[in-house]
């Protein structure tokens, strides 16, 4: 069953699982496509990637991923348009960010062609797995982790780069309520917050559980030093609309440079929406909520696209956002998803076609 | 080959690897004993642990350990005395700390008997693997990681707790030179620095590589906000001797509460050495280095025990420590290892015998 596609070896599964999948009822990220891309780093270099059947990974108990959290990942989506053409959104930005993350985690950087050709080949092989329904897409998870062995706390000598995909529905259902965190933090100055490093996520689970127990769905992280400035959410950057101005914090070494965030900024600016990228204090947001100038808050990220926020908690007080008719969130979400799914033209050159 | 020891099921290996091991020439943590303890969390509870042959672990590519760094670990040592009796050092403190770490990482806490009886049984089964030579010991690595599946950034529903062991020699050979970090950081206020979470270690690799390129072996972390206060090293807490006073920083949510550290404090106090647990600024250490009152610096941790520091770099200047005849480091190291290896009495009740 071996083939070579785009110079990449492809070993196809003998039994597809696709007939078991209910594409009209997809959850997020828990149904996996038939194949995955695998690429090993050993003897000082990345070896040629292969497409193989989706299958378990076998590791020594001393593999460093289990002990030292040496891993990075990306999140992307593939969309199918009405003509069955397949599209990615700014994939080179994900590739570059993966390498930025890898560098900070002392993981060897990947060659661009292994990532891009590997991804294209995988999508060609599993193109049947890309959902067509509105609101659904093929969630793509490239990740790199330390597979080399040993209990010495130092970088591994072997790594695995894998791309796995999951046909997925929405990440959140409906609006979310968020808690502006005043005790726990996501990242340190000089730390790894700007990297999509595995450990950044595990550290958020417990504070998020505490927030969920209080009736919120997400935590809004603030700076670890003063807790006065709004940083980002678990897997989304944060936008606030005060009067008609859209405000988002600047990126830094504590904050992920989100691709959705920067696309939203560009889209909004191109439509004449006033956008400010500047430090945003909790104080300002609370004051705006109190005087009625706070019109909207929303998260922006690949998984959730744009996720409107219904209200927030801060120091034991709850603040509700107004129910507006025409929101920036809804408008910008439509703009960006229309571009992503090839329903409109693409003035910024963000779309990337995966030709078969 | 199945047996029940201490209520724990034991499946012995059919072919021991012990004859391949050169016990007089052990490195740190890269030779693994014949067996391991495995315990699975599923259906909402920890299942009974088992001792099984050391063997690869098979995981779905979506297992959360690969993506979200949800893992914690411990580091302990077992020693064999002249009469072949087997000793641990304060093992309950490791157990408690593992659960403290787990809680912060949203990992279900382990029952004490699974940890302690599992550990004892494993050491009984692999007692031949515990080195007898001075300076060698059986390094013990308990760890817990998210084995449950899915790309949703939320805690896993399944975990594995494993104890693996490795007969080991010294962690460092000789004195180390350290760099007092002024740019990168290890942990945030309100973060996971006090937990032995995998992600804390991966984040240190790159800054440590940069330090190594400059001729240092280790980084001394400072607080992420001002970089003015000395926190700890990669896997060691830090002590400084100014004149005759031993000083170490207080623990906090950014710093691991080291078992070696607290033992050293108690030992030193019991011998009348003046000990101060207080914030220690880089400024004070540099001033003491300049005026000659800085006598010693050393790291303290299970793997390295006590690791004397020969000198440090700070803002492009290098500072050498004096070569003293009688050091606190050497004296305290002998005191603690004599207690650990049952060469002397144990006034604090730290030793714990593993009876066979
Ligand atoms: C911490 C964090 N912030 C923000 C984002 C949004 O980034 P992007 O828009 O590139 O998906 C993500 C998810 O990718 C994230 O994990
Ligand atoms: C970050 C860190 N600090 C300090 C220590 C020392 O702790 P202990 O003495 O309990 O081994 C360790 C190693 O265990 C560590 O990983």
Give an overview of the whole structure.
- Chains A, B: Acts on leucine, isoleucine and valine.
- Chains A, B: Belongs to the class-IV pyridoxal-phosphate-dependent aminotransferase family.
- Chains A, B: It comes from Hyunsoonleella aestuarii.
- Chains A, B: It holds the Pfam family Aminotran_4.
- Chains A, B: This is Branched-chain-amino-acid aminotransferase.
- The structure is a homodimer of 356-residue chains.
- The first copy, chain A, has 356 residues and is an alpha+beta fold.
- Chain A folds into 2 domains: 2-168, D-amino Acid Aminotransferase, Chain A, domain 1; 176-340, D-amino Acid Aminotransferase, subunit A, domain 2 (D-amino Acid Aminotransferase, Chain A, domain 2, Alpha-Beta Barrel).
- In chain A, 24% of the residues lie in helices and 31% in strands.
- Chain A contains 7 helices and 21 strands.
- In chain A, the strands form 2 sheets. In chain A, strands 1, 2, 3, 4, 5, 7, 8, 9, 10, 11 and 21 form an 11-stranded mixed beta sheet that branches. In chain A, strands 12, 13, 14, 15, 16, 17, 18, 19 and 20 form a 9-stranded mixed beta sheet that branches.
- In chain A, a hairpin with a 2-residue loop joins strand 1 (2-5) and strand 2.
- The radius of gyration of chain A is 21 Å and the shape is globular.
- At the A-B interface, strand 6, helix 1, strand 10, strand 11 and helix 4 of A face strand 6, helix 1, strand 10, strand 11 and helix 4 of B.
- Strand 6 of chain A pairs antiparallel with strand 6 of chain B, so a sheet runs across the interface.
- The complex binds pyridoxal-5'-phosphate (2 copies).
- One pyridoxal-5'-phosphate binds next to helix 5 of chain A.
- One pyridoxal-5'-phosphate (PLP) binds at residues 75, 196, 232, 235-237, 256, 258-261, 301-302 of chain B.
């Amino acid at each position: 069953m071996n083939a070579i596609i785009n110079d990449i070896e492809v070993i196809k599964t003998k039994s597809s699982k696709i007939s078991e999948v209910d594409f009209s009822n997809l959850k997020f990220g828990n149904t996996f496509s038939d194949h995955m891309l695998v690429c090993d780093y050993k003897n000082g270099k990345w070896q040629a990637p292969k497409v193989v059947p989706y299958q378990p990974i076998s590791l020594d108990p001393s593999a460093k991923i289990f002990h030292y959290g040496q891993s990075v990942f990306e999140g992307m989506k593939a969309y199918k348009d009405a003509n069955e053409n397949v599209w990615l959104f700014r994939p080179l930005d994900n590739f570059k960010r993966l390498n930025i993350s890898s560098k900070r985690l002392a993981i060897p950087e990947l060659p661009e062609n292994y990532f891009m050709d590997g991804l294209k080949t995988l999508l060609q092989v599993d193109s049947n797995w890309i959902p067509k329904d509105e609101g659904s897409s093929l969630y793509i998870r490239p990740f790199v982790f330390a597979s080399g062995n040993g209990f010495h706390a130092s970088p591994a000598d072997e790594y695995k780069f894998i791309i796995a995909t999951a046909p997925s529905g929405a990440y959140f259902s409906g609006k979310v309520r968020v808690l502006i965190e005043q005790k726990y933090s996501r990242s340190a100055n000089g730390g790894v917050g700007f990297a999509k490093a595995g450990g950044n996520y595990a550290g958020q689970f417990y504070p998020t559980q505490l927030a969920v127990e209080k009736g919120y769905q997400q935590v809004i992280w603030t700076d670890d030093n003063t807790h006065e400035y709004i940083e980002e959410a678990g897997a989304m950057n944060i936008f606030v609309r005060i009067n008609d101005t859209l405000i988002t914090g600047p990126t830094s070494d504590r904050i992920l440079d989100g691709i959705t965030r920067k696309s939203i900024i560009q889209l909004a600016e191109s439509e004449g929406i006033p956008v400010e990228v500047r430090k945003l204090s909790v104080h300002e947001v609370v004051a705006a909520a109190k005087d009625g100038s706070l019109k909207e808050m929303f998260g922006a990220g690949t998984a959730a696209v744009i996720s409107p926020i219904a209200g927030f908690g801060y120091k034991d007080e709850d603040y509700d956002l107004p129910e507006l008719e025409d929101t920036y969130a809804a408008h910008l979400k439509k703009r960006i998803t229309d571009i992503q799914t090839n329903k409109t033209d693409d003035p910024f050159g963000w779309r990337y076609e995966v030709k078969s």
